Amino acid sequence: MSTESQIPIRTKAPKRFAAGLAVFYATVFGVTGTYLPFFTVWLKAIGVEASWIGVIVATPSITRFTVLPFITAEAERRHALRKALIITATVTTLGFIGLGVLRGPLAILAVFVVTACAWTPMVPLTDGYALKAVARFGLNYGPLRLWGSAAFVVGALISGVLADLIAPEHLIWVIAGSAGLGVIAAFGLQPLDAPGTRPAAPVRRVALLRNPAFLAIIIPAGLIQGSHAAYYTFGSIVWQGAGYSGTTIASLWVLGVLAEIVVFALSPRFTLSPALMMLGGALSAVLRWLIAAQDPPLAVLIVVQLLHGLTFGLTQLGTMGLLIRHAPSHVIARAQGYYTACSGLAMSSAAMLSGVLFARYGLAVYDLMAAMALVGAVVVALSRRRLEAPPAGDQPHSSGSGG
Predict the structure, then answer these.
(1) Which residues form the Major facilitator superfamily associated domain (predicted)?
(2) How far is CA 284 from CA 41, 151, 163, 361, 373, in A?
(3) Strand, helix or coil at 79?
(4) How far apart are alpha carbons 72 and 116 in whole angstroms?
(5) Taking a C-beta distance cutoff of 8 angstroms, is the pair 33, 151 a contact?
(6) Complete DSSP assignment for 291-332
(7) Which residues 6+ apart lie within 8 Å of 149 measured at CB?
(8) C-alpha dihedral (47, 48, 51, 54), degrees to nearest 10
(9) What pLDDT is recorded for position 344?
(10) What is the CATH number of domain 11-191+204-401?
(11) Cα 21 from chain centroid?
(12) Torsion sign across C-alpha atoms 229, 230, 231, 236
């Protein structure tokens, strides 16, 4: 059993953790809400070509399987998740400010590499922080995580309105401003480790990667989430080319996240096993990308966006539920790092390939995304018995964890 579970629980501690988590999740995903819909629009507005856009946008995904696992593991080893979040939030803000004054693709790529090294660990560090609180206080992951999705909606809506009011080459400042809010919110997080507690027995860095059940979690989850690469990279560009306004584009993004919020909010009532949640998310992704490849009209596109609640939200809930079950709580942040690295490898590969395919074949790039999700579904189906088996040893588990 990890040291966190031995720390006395104070009556107000769950409320403090929940409040700090809600605010910080909101700031972290508020940045994503401004970045995803309009960062590529900003790149295009300042003259960056489509092939370069694919490379630049792939940068965060590359850092997820290179730098990120080391940052999450080191932060957990030092019991310094809160400090790590403060530092990464600060560097992220400075990085986006630096991007605002650049125009050449090589310079943008160089600065964005540094920015991404700080930015990409923020979500797994926050999820690791949250899952430690889930294990210690019996909190529900879904209702905590939905505040991040809600902030994404607000960020996307604000960006959509501003996209119709300001020149697209100035949209980078909206992203930088939202990132700055994360620095303030990071100081509101409560430390997880009580003074004087002894650390748990060290775990070898590769021990998790030798666990077949853990690999059966992160590989399909990475493929399913990585299948969103073309959507994240070229979704707004496709919609802009179809004549949709900035407000409509933002609304389409928001619609998908609203569906995600509903899934997170209702998650404590779900009776599906985490493995079945992942399988449902994978099959929904196959359907979603096959429809997206047909250049659907707005009415069908709305349905496609509503599927985001399943393709992302249900997959995320299933993944977190399985990680809580199969990864010891004292290495949960490290497990998050490995999972994010796996999804980053899938996402970066798909993003770079989608840049080439989109330039040549347009919307047919979504067929590749459907194939990725299908492979993920097959892996989950074949591994279901292993994933649903009781974990070896004493693993912390909560019904509120999402599984």
Answers:
(1) 21-362
(2) 27, 24, 31, 24, 9
(3) coil
(4) 14
(5) yes
(6) HHTT---HHHHHHHHHTHIIIIIIHHHHHHHHHHHHS-GGGH
(7) 29, 257, 260, 261, 264, 313
(8) -140
(9) 79
(10) 1.20.1250.20
(11) 15
(12) positive
Nearest alpha carbon to residue 231 among 303, 289, 168: 289
CA dist., res. 361 & res. 108, Å (int): 26
Question: Which pLDDT tens digit goes with each residue over 221-255?
Answer: 999 999 999 998 889 888 988 888 877 887 898 89
Q: Note the pLDDT of residue 315.
A: 96
- SS3 label, residue 36: helix
Per-residue pLDDT, 142: 85
Angle between helices 365-388 and 332-361 (to 10 degrees): 160
Rounded CA-CA distance 379/401 in Å is 23
Provide the sign of the torsion angle of the four alpha carbons 354, 360, 365, 368, taken in this order.
Answer: negative
For residue 160, the surrounding DSSP H or E stretch is helix 141-163
Separation between Cα atoms, residue 65 and residue 69, nearest integer Å:
7
Say whether pLDDT at 138 is over 80: no
Question: What are all long-range contacts of 238-244, with beta carbons under 8 Å and residues at least 24 apart?
Answer: 238/363, 240/41, 244/298
How many other β-carbons are positioned within 10 Å of the β-carbon of residue 399? Answer: 10
Across 26-35, 166-175, 374-383, 384-393, which has the greatest mean pLDDT? Answer: 374-383
What one-character-per-residue DSSP string does 41-74 give?
HHHHHTT--HHHHHHHHHHHHHHHTTTHHHHHHH
Domain ranges in the chain?
11-191+204-401
CB atoms within 10 A of CB 90: 16
Q: Which of 176, 155, 49 is nearest to 111 (CA)?
A: 176
Residue 324 · residue 391 · CB < 8 Å: no
Q: How does pLDDT run across 175-212, given as a tens digit for each residue?
A: 999 999 999 999 988 876 544 444 444 455 557 888 88
CB 39 within 8 A of CB 163: no
Cα 312 to Cα 231: distance, rounded to the nearest angstrom: 12
Picking from 300, 255, 330, the residue whose alpha carbon sits closest to that of residue 1 is: 330
Residue type at 60 in one-letter notation: P
Q: 335, 131 in Cβ contact below 8 A?
A: no
Of 185 and 330, the one with more pLDDT: 185
